[in-house]
């Protein structure tokens, strides 16, 4: 057995938290050899529900689950943390402007970034799920100056998995035969799901991209607007699939991406592919020896460039807003 990992989950009493925690405790995220110390971090109004979830976790008698703590103090919540899933955030309520949303979340992720900076374990891995995820990750990272920026990531694995699923439907190839899909940019409706470098069974993704009507009118908007379609159908936002994406993300970060494949991760841009340095943008990436490496050397044609640039422009505008509010 490996040494135990301290896993902190914020928003633990929420829908994604509920869908993620049992799988984490079952070993699906850190692997079957790593015992888990769980920290459920909530705000005071979520503490009672988090207690209930903790009771159910206890009742599952998971062999790997060593302890559960329920906290509403970020400093205690991130003390010694190896993996932080930052799921809790301030949702957009009625009448709330985009600026108000960025301000409310800027506050939350400033506090959490500082607490991670002060107390988390060396080598902490942070995944931001709470929206606006990319910009929340940027705020947290900038408020944790002693933690390398590449330890802060945001979730686009759900978008990546959605793209694979749509490509499987279109091609008839099983999900398992699809690799090298890429999500670029922001986790929002401006994201660009790129299939030009994908492998679909024995074929290239580019051969499917030749059908521009399907690509532009069906595939790209279906992936990019899937979150809204699910809200419309369920009356609630994606929870189990978001939790699944978060678990896949951390699993691959810790244990590596499969050979001959890559995944999509929002991380601090080193200036790759013309994306301004320091923006938290989604890239195709592989996890090697526990660190993300952006896939290099992919040819980006005009069709893709235009779409990447549009999503990056949105990220720049979010960054400028949180900068003008003093969060970064
Ligand atoms: P939810 O509303 O069911 O749960 C959120 C929980 O976070 C609540 O229990 C709340 O008390 C808690 N919370 C709020 N502020 C907190 C803070 N400062 N510290 C700790 N806990 C806090 O929401 P749900 O469905 O679980 O979604 C969570 C977030 O994930 C939302 O922002 C949603 O937009 C985002 N999301 C992101 C996706 C992605 O792919 N990146 C996909 C789906 C959702």
Automatic annotation (TrEMBL):
One of its GO terms (molecular function) is L-malate dehydrogenase (NAD+) activity. Substrate binds at residues 92, 98, 131, 162. NAD(+) binds at residues 11-17, 105, 112, 129-131. Catalyzes the reversible oxidation of malate to oxaloacetate. This is Malate dehydrogenase. It catalyses: (S)-malate + NAD(+) = oxaloacetate + NADH + H(+). Keywords: NAD, Oxidoreductase, Tricarboxylic acid cycle. Signal peptide: none annotated. CDD domains: MDH_chloroplast-like. NCBIfam families: MalateDH-SF1, PRK05442.1. It comes from Rhodococcus tibetensis. Residues 7-145 form the Lactate/malate dehydrogenase N-terminal domain. It holds the Pfam family Ldh_1_C. It is an enzyme of class 1 (oxidoreductase).
């Amino acid at each position: 057995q490996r040494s135990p990992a301290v896993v902190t989950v914020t928003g633990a009493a929420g829908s994604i938290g509920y869908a993620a925690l049992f799988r984490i405790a079952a070993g699906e995220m850190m692997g079957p050899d790593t015992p888990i110390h769980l920290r459920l971090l909530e705000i005071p109004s979520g503490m009672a529900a988090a207690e209930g979830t903790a009771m159910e976790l206890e009742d599952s008698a998971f062999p790997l689950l060593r302890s559960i703590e329920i906290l509403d103090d970020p400093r205690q919540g991130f003390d010694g943390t190896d993996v932080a899933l930052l799921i809790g955030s301030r949702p957009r309520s009625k009448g709330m402007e985009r600026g108000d949303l960025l301000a409310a979340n800027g506050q939350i992720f400033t506090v959490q970034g500082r607490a991670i900076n002060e107390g988390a374990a060396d080598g902490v891995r942070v995944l931001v799920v709470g929206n606006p995820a990319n910009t929340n990750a940027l705020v947290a990272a900038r408020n944790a100056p002693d933690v390398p920026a590449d330890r802060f990531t945001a979730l686009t694995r759900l978008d990546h998995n959605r793209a694979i699923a749509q490509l499987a439907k279109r091609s008839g190839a099983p999900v398992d035969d699809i690799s090298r899909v890429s999500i670029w940019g922001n986790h929002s409706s401006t994201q660009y799901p790129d299939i030009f470098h994908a492998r679909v069974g024995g074929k290239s993704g580019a051969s499917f991209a030749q059908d521009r009507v399907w690509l532009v009118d069906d595939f790209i908007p279906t992936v990019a607007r899937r979150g809204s379609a699910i809200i419309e159908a369920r009356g609630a936002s994606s929870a189990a699939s978001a939790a699944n994406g978060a678990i896949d993300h951390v699993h691959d970060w810790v244990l590596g991406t499969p050979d001959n494949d890559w995944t999509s991760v929002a991380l601090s841009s080193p200036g790759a592919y013309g994306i301004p340095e320091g923006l938290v943008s989604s890239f195709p990436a592989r996890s090697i020896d526990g660190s993300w490496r952006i896939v290099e050397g992919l040819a980006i044609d005009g069709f893709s460039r235009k779409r990447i640039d549009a999503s990056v422009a949105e990220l720049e505008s979010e960054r400028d807003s949180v900068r003008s509010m003093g969060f970064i």
